[in-house]
UniProtKB/TrEMBL annotation:
It comes from Schizopora paradoxa. InterPro entries: NAD(P)-bd_dom_sf, SDR_enzymes, SDR_fam. SUPFAM superfamilies: NAD(P)-binding Rossmann-fold domains. GO terms for molecular function: oxidoreductase activity, acting on the CH-OH group of donors, NAD or NADP as acceptor. It comes from the Eukaryota. Pfam families: adh_short. This is NAD(P)-binding protein.
Length: 267
């Protein structure tokens, strides 16, 4: 009975992973959310799902105690193991996303914003991995998947010349290094660490008009540098491709930074 823990499961990609994994009654799925009361879509899905194989647990990236409690509960249910951890939870959208590093109103605001991204996306993910690594080491599949972003690629940043979203981009770049460190330490035990870029997924909340405007403008901007760019994709497309990759990845790829098709992202 394979077991999966998915962070950031209240909506978007996280919820998509939970729904896809729960479709197989042999899977045990742990949906980790920052706040259970703030996850109505997830609760609705779990309540109406026929297989009853999803457990909702609270685990906030900035609350280490909640992370440890969730890991303990997972271990209690599975008997001390976990096959796959999908570290998806992250802070992405922010009111000052469009500002470059030298455009913030003052130094304190810059400090606060950058530290918030680092604490949530980098340290939060590290704390999550640290809490669940004993269960992964005891599991049969031993896979830790970090949902990354092409925006964290140094080479792609130079090619696109984009200057917005600095906090998010730098936090994702830092996670790439963290994944390699873990991969190096646990390779001999067969634990696989893989960072996957999910694609430009249509998870933005808002009116249909607002969502369409955002993605059409963003796609046009990207195609100025990459004319053959595939464009935005649905949650279902992204999850399908990522799960196929997760199921097939082997230890020789541990520490890699890849697209959802398995090809290495330019670092």
């Amino acid at each position: 009975m394979p077991s999966y823990a998915v962070t950031g499961s209240s909506r978007g990609l996280g919820l998509g992973f939970v729904q896809a994994l729960a479709a197989d009654p042999s899977n045990t799925v742990f949906a980790l959310v920052r706040s259970i009361s703030s996850a109505p879509k997830l609760q609705e899905f779990v309540a109406g799902h026929a297989h009853k194989n999803v457990h909702i647990l609270q685990a906030d990236n900035v609350d280490v105690a909640s992370i440890k409690t969730a890991a303990k509960e997972v271990g209690r249910i599975t008997g001390g193991t976990l096959d796959v951890l999908i570290a998806n939870g992250a802070l992405m959208h922010h009111e000052r996303n469009k500002l470059m590093l030298d455009e913030f109103p003052d130094e304190s605001v810059l400090d606060d914003d950058m530290l918030t991204f680092y604490k949530t996306n980098v340290l939060g993910t590290i704390h999550m991995i640290n809490a669940f690594i004993p269960l992964l080491r005891a599991g049969s599949t031993k896979k830790c998947i970090i949902i990354g972003s092409a925006i964290g690629s140094h080479k792609l940043a130079r090619r696109t010349e984009f200057t917005d979203n600095p906090g998010y981009a730098m936090s994702k770049a830092a996670l790439n290094i963290a994944a390699v460190r873990y991969a190096s330490k646990y390779r001999s035990e067969g634990v696989i660490f893989l960072t996957i870029t999910p694609g430009f997924v249509r998870t933005l909340q808002g009116t249909p008009e607002e969502v369409e405007k955002f993605f059409s403008e963003a796609e046009a901007k990207i195609r100025e540098k990459f004319p053959s760019y595939e464009g935005s994709i649905t949650v279902e497309q992204s999850v399908r491709d990522q799960l196929a990759l997760i199921s097939s990845v082997t230890i020789d790829r541990s520490g890699d930074f890849v697209n959802r098709d398995g090809k290495n992202v330019e670092g």
